[in-house]
Write a structure and sequence with these properties.
Number of helices: 19
CATH class of the largest domain: Alpha Beta
CATH topology of the largest domain: Metallo-beta-lactamase, Chain A
CATH superfamily of the largest domain: Ribonuclease Z/Hydroxyacylglutathione hydrolase-like
Bound molecules: zinc ion
Low-confidence stretches: 78-84, 361-375, 483-490, 581-590
CATH architecture of the largest domain: 4-Layer Sandwich
Number of domains: 4
Strand order of the largest sheet: 4-5-6-7-8-17-18
Number of strands: 28
Helix content: 25-40%
Distance between the termini: 81 Å
Structural class: alpha/beta
Mean pLDDT: 85
Shape: elongated
C-alpha cells in the first residue's frame, strides 16, 4: 500500500480514500512517501480505526515531521469554529498511540518484509520525501510519490535508481505536459512580483503549506534580503507555530540535504566561530525572517511579506489575512504551491470580483457586519493582485517524460493530480511509443478500479538440503540421430537440443520464494512438520502356508521381493531392546517368518504362529491402493479354486501330510 492521505478539498470522513473498497487486513507493507497531508494524514486513521495489521515505513525526517504535523492538525481541528459539525477522523490519543508503530528507514537502504523488498530513494520534493523501489514476486516497481528533479536550495533532486530494470513505474502526473519556467527565471519573477508589491506599499501574502516548500521559499527570501539592503527594513513574517517547532527537524537532518545547504552550514559555522555567535550558525537560522506566533501579536501597519498556512487558504491564518487584505489593490497574493480544485487558492487564481468571508475572527471582516451562521453570504471584494509561480517541487511534463525514458519501464501508471493533466501526459507518452522499440503501456486507472497487468517472470526454485549435495544437473546434448520418429527435431542444430537431467523433491513456496528439497528436509528447511504413517493389518491364514501366499502374490503382482533376512534381523534387534527374557521365544519366531515385499512398498510377513500374516506399508495414496490389492489377494488365497488346486499340488510335491 502506497501512502495514506486525505483530500485537502474535503473534511472529515469524505476526505478519506475509499478504504471500504479494499480489505486493509491483507496489506503487508504500507509505505508513506512524504509528510504532506495528501500522502500521510489518514495514517492515524488506518492504524487506529481499520483492520490494517501490516507494517508502516517512512524515512526518519518524514517520521519526525509527521508527528508534529498530525498533532497540529488534530489540535487545529479541535479549535476550529466548525469542529462540532466535523466528524473527527481520529484523536490526538489515536495519533500518539499509533505513532510508535511507524518504522523509520534511511535512503538507499533495503528492507525485506514478507518477501517484499523496499528501498527508499530521495524524491527532491520535501525534506524526507522518498521514491520507493519495491521488489515483489520478481517484479520491480518504482513509486515516485511527489518528486522533483530541479536544482534546489536544500533538497537532493530525484534520480532514477542505478542498475535497476524497473518493470512498473508509478509516477505522479500533477503538472501534466505543462512546462515550468526555468528555476532561475522563476525565482527572479517571484522576487520581482514580491518587491513590486512592497514598492507600491502593499502587503505580500504567500499562502504556503507550513512545511516543505515554505522552507525553500524562506531560503530564497533570506538570501535575497541579504543581498538587497534596501528591503531589509521590510519584515518577512512566517506565521506558523508548526513550522517553528519543526525547524529543529530541519536542523537535525542537514545530512539528508544537498551540498548547497551543507556548504551554507560550513560557511555559517566558520562565520560564527569568528564572531562567537555559535547559536545562530545553522543554515536554518534565518537572518531576516521573523517567526509569528499568532495574528494577535502582529502589528499590521505597513508593507510586509507574510508566509502563512494553510497553503490552499481553506481556513486558518492565511484565509484570515486574505479576507483582511484582499480589498486593498496595493496588496498581492502570491501562490507558490500546488492548488487542489475547489480550494480558495484555486478560486483566487481566477481573480474573482468577490470572495466569500468565512473567518469569524479579525477586525476587518467583523466590521463588515457578518451575520453569525450565515458566513457564506458575506462577500469581500477582491482588488489585490494574484500571481502564481510553481515552486511546488513537482516535475513538469518534460522532466517527467525524461524520467520515464531514463527508468525505461514496460508499464507506466499515472497517479496524483487532475484527470485532464493526467490524460494529456498519457497521450504524450503514448505518442512517443512510435519511436520506441518496446512500446510502453500507460495506465491512469480511476479510483477503485483494479488494474491487471499480465507479466511473465522467470520462476526460480532454490535447491536446498540433501538435494543440493547432488552435483548440479548438466544439460545433456541430444544428437539428432538419437531422436527417432520426430522429423522436426532433425532441423534443429545439435547444440540447441538440450535435455536437462531430472532431480525430484518437494517444491515449497513461501511468499514469493520457491525451494526444492528432499521430503526429509522439509522440517529443517521449510519449517514444515512431516508425518509418516505406518499402516499394519493382521489376519490369520492357518491353511495357506508361505509358498501358497508367495504363489498367489506373484500371480497378481509379478515378481515380488523376499526380504526375510533383513526384516528378521530388524525384528530381532527390536525384540532385544525389549529385554533379554524374550530372547528364546523371539528367536524361534523369527526363524519361522518370511517377508515379501510387493511393488517395493507393501511388506507381507507370513508364516507366523497360527498362520498369522502381517501386511505393513507406509501410508500414502499409492501404497494404500497397492496394500488394498494385496489384502484382497490374501483374503481369497485359501478359498479360490486356483489356490486350492495349487495347494494340493504343493503338498503332493513336498510329500508332506496336507494338514
Ligand atoms: Zn507533496
Ligand atoms: Zn501530493
Amino acid at each position: 500500500m502506497l501512502d495514506a492521505g486525505t483530500s485537502p478539498a474535503y473534511e472529515g470522513i469524505s476526505s478519506l480514500p475509499f478504504y471500504d473498497e479494499y480489505d486493509l487486513s491483507t496489506v503487508d507493507v504500507l509505505l508513506i512517501s512524504h509528510f504532506h497531508i495528501d500522502h500521510a494524514a489518514s495514517l492515524p486513521y488506518v492504524l487506529a480505526k481499520t483492520n490494517f495489521k501490516g507494517r508502516v515505513f517512512m524515512t526518519h525526517p518524514t517520521k519526525a515531521i509527521y508527528k508534529w504535523l498530525i498533532q497540529d492538525s488534530v489540535r487545529v481541528g479541535n479549535v476550529s469554529s466548525s469542529a462540532e459539525q466535523k466528524i473527527q477522523l481520529y484523536t490526538e490519543a489515536d495519533h500518539l498511540s499509533t505513532f510508535p508503530q511507524i518504522e523509520a528507514i534511511d535512503y538507499y537502504t533495503t528492507h525485506t518484509i514478507s518477501s517484499i523488498r523496499i528501498t527508499p530513494y530521495p524524491a527532491g520534493h520535501v525534506l524526507g520525501a522518498a521514491m520507493f523501489l519495491i521488489e515483489i514476486a520478481g517484479l520491480k516497481i518504482l513509486f515516485t510519490g511527489d518528486y522533483s528533479r530541479e536544482e534546489d536550495r536544500h533538497l537532493i533532486s530525484a534520480r532514477a535508481p542505478e542498475n535497476v530494470k524497473v518493470d512498473v513505474l508509478i509516477t505522479e502526473s500533477t503538472y501534466g505536459v505543462a512546462t515550468h519556467v526555468p528555476r532561475v527565471e522563476r525565482e527572479n519573477m517571484l522576487m520581482k512580483t514580491i518587491t513590486g508589491i512592497l514598492n507600491r506599499g502593499g502587503r505580500a501574502l504567500l499562502p504556503v503549506f507550513a512545511l516543505g516548500r515554505a522552507q525553500e521559499l524562506l531560503l530564497i527570501l533570506d538570501e535575497y534580503w541579504g543581498k538587497h539592503p534596501e528591503y531589509q527594513k521590510v519584515p518577512i513574517y512566517y506565521a506558523s507555530n508548526l513550522a517553528r517547532k519543526c525547524m529543529v527537524v530541519y536542523q537535525t537532518y542537514i545530512s539528508a540535504m544537498n551540498d548547497n545547504i551543507k556548504r551554507l552550514f560550513r560557511e555559517r559555522m566558520a562565520e560564527a566561530e569568528s564572531t562567537g555567535e555559535v547559536s545562530k550558525a545553522g543554515p536554518w537560522d534565518f537572518r531576516y525572517i521573523r517567526s509569528l506566533k499568532s495574528l494577535e501579536r502582529f502589528d499590521d501597519i505597513g508593507s510586509c511579506v507574510m508566509l502563512a498556512s494553510p497553503g490552499m487558504m481553506q481556513s486558518g491564518v492565511s484565509r484570515e489575512l486574505l479576507e483582511r487584505w484582499a480589498p486593498d489593490q496595493r496588496n498581492g497574493v502570491v501562490i507558490t504551491g500546488y492548488s487542489v480544485e475547489g480550494t480558495m487558492a484555486k478560486i483566487i487564481m481566477t481573480e474573482p470580483e468577490f470572495i466569500p468571508a468565512i473567518m469569524t475572527r479579525g477586525a476587518a471582516t467583523a466590521s463588515r457586519g457578518k451575520v453569525p451562521g450565515q458566513h457564506d453570504q458575506v462577500q469581500i471584494p477582491r482588488r489585490c493582485t494574484v500571481n502564481e509561480f510553481a515552486f511546488a517541487a513537482h516535475v513538469d511534463g518534460a522532466e517527467n517524460r525524461e524520467f520515464v525514458e531514463e527508468v525505461n519501464p514496460s508499464v507506466v501508471i499515472l497517479v496524483h493530480g487532475e484527470k485532464s493533466q493526467m490524460t494529456r501526459f498519457k497521450s504524450k507518452l503514448l505518442g512517443l511509443n512510435s519511436k520506441r522499440k518496446n512500446p510502453i503501456k500507460v495506465f491512469s486507472p480511476p479510483n477503485c478500479e483494479a488494474l491487471r497487468i499480465p507479466f511473465k517472470t522467470e520462476k526460480l526454485a532454490k535447491v536446498v538440503g540433501k538435494l543440493a549435495q547432488i552435483t548440479a544437473p548438466q544439460p545433456i546434448t541430444v544428437r539428432p540421430q538419437d531422436v527417432s520418429g520426430d522429423e522436426e527435431m532433425k532441423d534443429v542444430a545439435p547444440e540447441e537440443q538440450t535435455q536437462p537431467q531430472l532431480i525430484t523433491g518437494v517444491l515449497v513456496q513461501s511468499d514469493f520464494k520457491m525451494s526444492l528439497m528432499a521430503p526429509e528436509d522439509l522440517r529443517e528447511y521449510a519449517g514444515l512438520t512431516t508425518t509418516q504413517i505406518t499402516c499394519r493389518q493382521q489376519m490369520a491364514l492357518p491353511t495357506a502356508g508361505v509358498e501358497l501366499i508367495r504363489w498367489a502374490l506373484e500371480g497378481t503382482f509379478g515378481g515380488i521381493k523376499i526380504v526375510t533376512p533383513d526384516f528378521a534381523a530388524e525384528k530381532k534387534k527390536e525384540q532385544d531392546a525389549h529385554g533379554n527374557g524374550a530372547m528364546e521365544v523371539a528367536d524361534e519366531e523369527v526363524g519361522r517368518t518370511t517377508v515379501f515385499e510387493v511393488m517395493d512398498c507393501v511388506r507381507v510377513e507370513c508364516g507366523g504362529p497360527q498362520g498369522k500374516v502381517v501386511v505393513e506399508w507406509e501410508g500414502n495414496m499409492v501404497n494404500d491402493g497397492i496394500a488394498d490389492a494385496v489384502v484382497g489377494v490374501l483374503l481369497t488365497v485359501e478359498s479360490s479354486p486356483a489356490a486350492v488346486k495349487r495347494k494340493f499340488l504343493l503338498h503332493e510335491q513336498s510329500h508332506r501330510p496336507p494338514f
